[in-house]
Amino acid sequence: MINDKNVPNLRFPGFTEAWEQRKLGDEFTRVNERNDGSFGKNHWISVAKMYFQEPEKVQSNNLDTRTYVMRYGDIAFEGHPNSEFQFGRFVANDIGDGIISELFPIYRHLLPYDNSYWKYAIQIERVMRPIYAKAITSSGASSNKLNEEHFLRESILVPKIEEQVAIGSFLTQIDNLITLHQRKCEAIKEYKNGMLQKMFPKDGKNVPEIRFPGFTDAWEQRKLSEVCKRITDGSHFSPAEVEDGYPMPSVKDMTENGFNYTSCKKISKDDYDVLVNQGCKPEIGDVLVAKDGSILKYAFVIKENQEVVILSSIAILKPDCQYIDGGYLAQYFKIDSFKKRVIDENTTGTGVPRIVLANFKNFEICFPNIEEQQRIGQFLDELDNLITLHQRKYEELIILKKYLLQNMFPSNT
Questions:
Q1: Would you give the distance in Å from CA 231 to the centre of its chain?
Q2: Average of per-residue pLDDT across 189-207
Q3: Is residue 380 a contact partner of residue 193, using CB atoms and an 8 Å limit?
Q4: Which residues have C-beta within 8 Å of that of residue 141, sequence separation ≥ 6?
Q5: Phi and psi dihedrals of 30, rounded to 5?
Q6: Integer Cα distance of 385 and 404 in angstroms
Q7: pLDDT averaged over every residue in the chain
Q8: Model confidence over 26-55: pLDDT tens digits?
Q9: Cβ neighbours of 119 (radius 10 Å)
Q10: 373 — phi, psi (to 5°)?
């Protein structure tokens, strides 16, 4: 009969046997292989993030006497505790042979193993924490020391090599997808930031570096008060919070393209109605801009009716469609040079930084005709949508990976 504690909640088809309770001393041995001169600065491994350090950044001058050789598949203990790893953690070498500081103890496999599997297995906190609790001797507030004898005496559940390969390969694919979406997200952000610098005129100019075909007219410059019908902000008082009511977000609840409603304050129907009558409810086409705390960090246009009222930390701009397009205006607040100038000239307060609402009226912006504005706004909005898509995929995969790590490995208890 299989002990339910010796099998994970999730398994690949075809694997049914219980995992083996194995002494760490049967799986690993401590190694102190010194560098014989075969490895230089170009082989220096940064243990914390597991990559080869750039040679010019390697500061150690004792590469032969004060380093250990870490082979592919070895694991090294990095004893700096943090919020994720209470006692520190092991890191598996999946990049190739190199050298590390002698401060990190290295352990080498004695039995057949899949390196991708062990890369994840040795970092599962619920599995490793009870082992560390018996094997750690503290060596200061910033780092812990692992007692070799006590560590190798502890046990861990291990599947057969075939199941190790299946688990390691699958989790590696998940990590590759996470990296893919993260890189795409960052690449699009970088591309968009470059376009923001080129699609809007630089200070003192009246035409941008890049334009859509067919547009040649010089751009106009006016104050926001001349191109907006209304410039106001949200409520200057905060009603009582209720458990189930209408959302009342502040700057902390703003995202790149809207609000995060999961944690924002909720208010009653009566308070909501009062604030709606006071003009604290944004309408379709309004541009919302953070004016307190994270100044100008977020700016977006309201695209659909929402039963929401906002706090005074957010400015509400109602564009005059005769002059300015809301999507264009929201993107204008994301131009680095514009943000810097506005913040430098208008920030007040020694505590939480803020921009006085009245100052918004004097912000000067450049703009072309409405048609060109719409083209610019739509183009940049499409980039924002791509960024959001990859960001969501990234976040979903992070959640999936966490679930898999919780369910594809049994606890030792």
A1: 33
A2: 92
A3: no
A4: none
A5: -75, 135
A6: 28
A7: 91
A8: 999 999 999 888 898 899 999 989 999 998
A9: 21
A10: -55, -45
